Amino acid sequence: MKGLAQKLRTGQVTSVQLVQHYLDKIQADDPKVQAFLYVDWEGALAAARASDERRKLGKPLSPWDGIPIAVKDNICTVGMPTTCASRLLEDYYSPFDAAVIERIKRAGLPVLGKTNLDEFAMGSSTEYSAYHITHNPYDLSRVPGGSSGGSAAAVAAGLCPWALGSDTGGSIRQPAAFCGVVGLKPTYGRVSRWGLVALASSLDQIGPMGRTVEDVEILFSLIAGYDGRDSTSLPDAAYHCSASGPDTLAGLRLGVPEEFFGNGLCPEVAASVRRAITLMESLGAQVQPISLPHSAYAIDTYLTLVTAEASSNLARYDGVRYGKRVEADDAWDMFRKTRTKGFGPEVKRRIMLGTYVLTASHHEAYYEQARRVRSLITQDLEDAFAAVDVVVTPTTPTTAFRIGEKQDPLQMYLSDSYTATANLAGIPALTLPCGFDSRGLPIGIQLLADHFREDLLFRTGRLLERILGEVGE
Amino acid sequence: MISRAEVVRMAELAMLELNEVEIALYQADLNRFLQSGAELRKVNTQEVRLSSHVGRASSRMREDVIQRSLPQEKALRNGPCVVDGCFRVPRVMEDVR
Amino acid sequence: MTGYEIRIGLEIHVELATNTKIFCGCAVEFGAPPNSQCCPVCLGLPGSLPVLNRAAVEYAIRAALALNCTINLYSEFVRKNYFYPDLPKAFQITQDDKPLAVNGLLRYYLGDELMETQITRLHLEEEAGKSIHSGESIIGSEYTSVDYNRAGIPLAEIVTAPTMNSPAQARAFLEQLRLVLQYAGVSDCKMENGSLRCDANITVHPEPGMRVEKVEIKNLNSFRALERALAYEAERQVRVLERGGTVMPETRTWDERAQKTVRMRVKAGAPDYRYFPEPDLPPLELDAAWIEEIRSTLPELPLEKEARYQEAYGLSTYDTGVLVRAPQLAQVFEATVAQGRDPKFVANWVTGDYAHLARLGGTVSAEHFGQLLDMISSGAISAAQGKTVLQEMFARGVSPREFVAEMGFTVIADRDFLGKVIREVLTGHPELVERYCNGEDRLLGFFVGQVMKATNGRAEPRLVNKLLVEALAEGRNWQPRAE
Question: Model confidence over B15-45: pLDDT tens digits?
Fold first, then answer.
């Protein structure tokens, strides 16, 4: 991205040329990948022309002014639909921009369009989109992961230089790993959720996705920051890109939780991640085993909380103020018909489950218990970060699976086994590619750090990325 | 185990209409989920103090200053049925409140 | 109804007098065009988030302190999930097991008896929008129109213990509650606008303490409605019991036209609202210093004021009652008395003419009012003139001194002149003079009135009185002679 910025600054390339390049690429390749739900052909070019004007006047909004971006379609954008890949919101136009959209517009980034996702971000494969399935650019018969599968595939296929996703239990990191790109789930409260259509409010974060750790860090610095419209936004949320540090990881204490390398982990993934750990050790990191004893409960805890919050967050889709209404004789019937027709099966499944765990008779045993175990999981990590600086794990148990392979929702939920922990604890987590399996599918490695230590993740990630590049696959 | 009646009641609370096939499907899914989560309920959490928020934000409040509302036409724009400045819905048979 | 114990509890919703809604910056003005005071937050648009209004919290704390509640330094907002067309998010943000305030107490008079009722809790929540049902009522309507202007107005919900024993007591409680909240300045408490709403629950126990089912009554839009609905409901329940029946737990509504309560729905198990902590709002953690600061700005409350007026000024219960119920009158009273005037004299004027004119509209400053009272008490103008002057002060905002000077209002205290007028009045009413002479003393007032009328109210009343008595006494002697 620094290279692109340099070319824009020196006039070797204009924003219009750059945007046109990506639009051409979308036109050529997106029919195969199907990463986008909506492409803003005219709007992106208009924004590019405005950017070039600013350059001409010597007044770019930022060094990145004119570099386009793709946005997951659960982030509100004025002038484009915001569908959440749901039939219910097919014609929905938000009257306001999400805080992150305001921020990237303030930095001069033209928005290419809106990317595909599992309906309301519920899923791990983008197969639950009500519109179409997105294909993994590495193997079109495979899923890109999800729910930010459209953004991950678009970056991997070169349809955009970087993209925004959202992550509730792994929705940035899992597709990034499946598509061989870099993705960050920021510290909870660092990126404003104003304008992010809520799945589970206590877990959701918007985050950056890109081809390199450096790009992701730059995009993160553009979107992080305090926002008074989000009561969970943190006052010191802003992030400034770290200067490139020393070329070693000397002194870095790296924790390896054995719970993340047990049953269910594909051996090829395990080998690749262990190799990366060895490389980090060779850069001076002190590797030590740690224990996160409650990890085994992360996925059930996560599912209980995410479905509970989602059942409430999605209640507003009743066909009164917006959404595709199914007419009926009385209001209650209209509610039921609208929601039944508008939501896909996975959304209904999660709403049913979430409703169940919140009912008075099950509240204590399920919902409250999950909140308590969430505290234990958070405590595990606090203890871990007293002993180590960065925790390293595989991002996903497997590489990208085939479209249609996972028919069982419970199997699908297991895709988030390694990622959900960071959302439960509110800590930042970075995934970057660390190799390929024997089929040539990318493998991701996940780095976790304590609250607000994205800087550590980026520094470690950059060095790991470099050495992986040097030693080759 | 979740009974069929419970599934029907959940659907009522969630404002969803399920046919027999879906009821059976969700009954099975819910049961499997609850079985897989059985371990979770065995975790000893008696000592855990529940704080309602994992986020570190503390209560910040907004000053009582009027902000511009949406123009009426924008507020109504996404409405599926809008008449005389109001969102119109079919009759409300019963006041549930 | 002897032998039955009635127990009544109230649940009151008060719209707090903030400028903006509880979770967004939309104005809360009454009567704006539909859906013109709405934004993504109060419309529940996807991607919107709530941010708590400090003033809503402050007003709720003021209300809670005025009701002697304990403020919880830690409280939580929760979501109450249910579907209704005018509920934008399909959940209401409210407080459940960790409310803002608990354990309050309100004292009030029921007749001459001082009562007290426990306030169980006071919490903050958001108002819903407004549903306008087509046709006559909800039952026969074809469609419903929804306006979200009211959605998100801050509410304080106040719940009492079910310990009131009569409809009259419930009314007295609610009247006092309204007065206290108005004193605290947290709400205009207008039942006709819905800024103060009350639901009641009532049980009738054949024997004290015996367990019976609770009936809730809604749609109580006035104090009268509250009292009548409870009276009707108590009688209805007694009738049911006397017939050997059982009272069903149900929700009823007050039908104002028919003057009776009507069943809305039977309580088939409590609805499951699936409460859980609102994840978009951190817990409300309050600073004890802030609460003390709010406490220090609370005004003297009605009951304290009542006691002080009776003790310090020796006012009658009637005058005290009128003044305490109308804070603006009380203010004028105190400001006027503060300059050393006779409290009873001031109270008479404030609760009489001033109160009457103020009800018609307008105000007169305490300073001008005081000047007027001084002119009356010094005898510079008569009381009758004073009334006219006060009317002009309200109507035109004139200063009493200027007005009196301008109109040449002065008191006539010329004995010869008044003697002449009196003679004319008496000769004009020989029959009445005769009756007076035969012992009908109360006719004196009539003669005074006639003299005042003849002098355009300018005659000095005490002097007129004196001269008339003299003249009539004389008349008892001269009248027959004149015959």
Answer: 999 999 999 999 999 999 888 878 888 888 8
Q: Is B92 on the interface with A (CB under 8 A)?
A: yes
Is A204:A319 a contact under the CB 8 Å cutoff? Answer: no
Q: Are residues C276 and C323 in the same domain?
A: no
Q: Spell out a b/e string for A394-412, using b for 16 or more CB atoms within 10 Å of the CB, else e.
A: bbbbbbbbebeebeebeeb
C250-255 vs C260-266, strand pairing mode: antiparallel
Is C295 part of a structural domain of the chain?
no
* Preferred mutation among A229, A332, A334 to probe C, highest tally of C CBs within 10 A: A229
ipTM of the complex: 0.96
For C80, name the nearest residue in chain B, comparing CA atoms only. Answer: B97
Question: By residue range, what is the domain housing residue C372?
Answer: 300-407
Same domain, residue pair C273 and C179: yes
Please compute the mean of the pLDDT values over residues C304-310 and round it to a whole number.
Answer: 91
* Chain C environment of A309 (Cβ under 8 Å): 276, 279
Helix (H, G, I), strand (E, B) or coil at C218: strand
Is residue A201 flagged as an active site residue?
A: no
3-state SS class at A69 = strand
Cβ–Cβ gap B33/A321 under 8 Å: no
Residue B62 sits at the chain C interface (C-beta within 8 Å): yes
CB pairs under 8 A between B and C: 138
Determine contact, residues A381/A254, Cβ cutoff 8 Å. no
B89 close contact with C: CB closer than 8 A: yes
Enumerate domains of chain A plus CATH numbers.
2-223 (3.90.1300.10), 253-289+389-471 (no CATH)
Write the CB contacts of A320 (distance below 8 Å, at least 6 apart in sequence).
Answer: B79, B80, B87, B89, C85, C146
Q: Comparing C-alpha atoms, which of A311, B83, B92, A307 is closest to residue C89?
A: A311
Task: Please give the Cα distance from A68 to A219 (Å, whole number).
Answer: 11
* Residue C450 maps to a domain: yes
CA-CA distance, C141 to A422, in Å (whole number)? Answer: 51
Same domain, yes or no, for C108 and C129? yes
C52–B64 CB contact, under 8 Å:
no
Whether C23 is in a domain gets the answer: yes
What is the C-alpha to C-alpha distance for residues B92 and C144, in angstroms, rounded to an integer? 7
Residue of C371, C396, C397, C406 lying closest to C386 (CA atoms): C371
Q: Is A147 a catalytic residue?
A: yes
How does pLDDT run across C214-250, given as a tens digit for each residue? 999 998 999 999 999 999 999 999 999 999 888 888 9
Distance from CA of B44 to the nearest CA of C (A): 22
Residue with tokens 């770019």, as numbered in its chain: A60
**B86 at interface of C, judged by CB pairs closer than 8 A:** yes
| Contacts with B97 from chain C: Cβ below 8 Å | 82, 84
User: How many angstroms separate the CA atoms of C412 and C406, rounded?
Assistant: 17
Catalytic residue flag (residue A337): no
State whether C134 and C233 are in the same domain. yes
Q: What percent of chain A has pLDDT over 70?
A: 100
Enumerate the β-bridge partners of residue A431: A183, A446
Burial class (CB within 10 angstroms; exposed 0-12, middle 13-18, buried 19+) of B78 = buried
C210 and C283 in a single domain? The answer is yes
Number of domains forming the structure of chain C: 3
Query: Pick the catalytic residue: A51, A86, A147, A295?
Result: A147
pLDDT tens-digit map of B54-94: 556 677 899 999 999 999 999 999 999 999 999 999 988 76
Query: In chain B, positions 21-50, which contact chain C (CB-CB < 8 Å)?
Result: none
B73 in reach of chain C (CB within 8 A) = no
Q: Are residues C71 and C98 in the same domain?
A: yes
The pLDDT of residue C2 is above 70: no
Look up residue A278 and give its two tokens: 């060895």
Please list the alpha-helical segments (H only) found in A363-405. 369-387
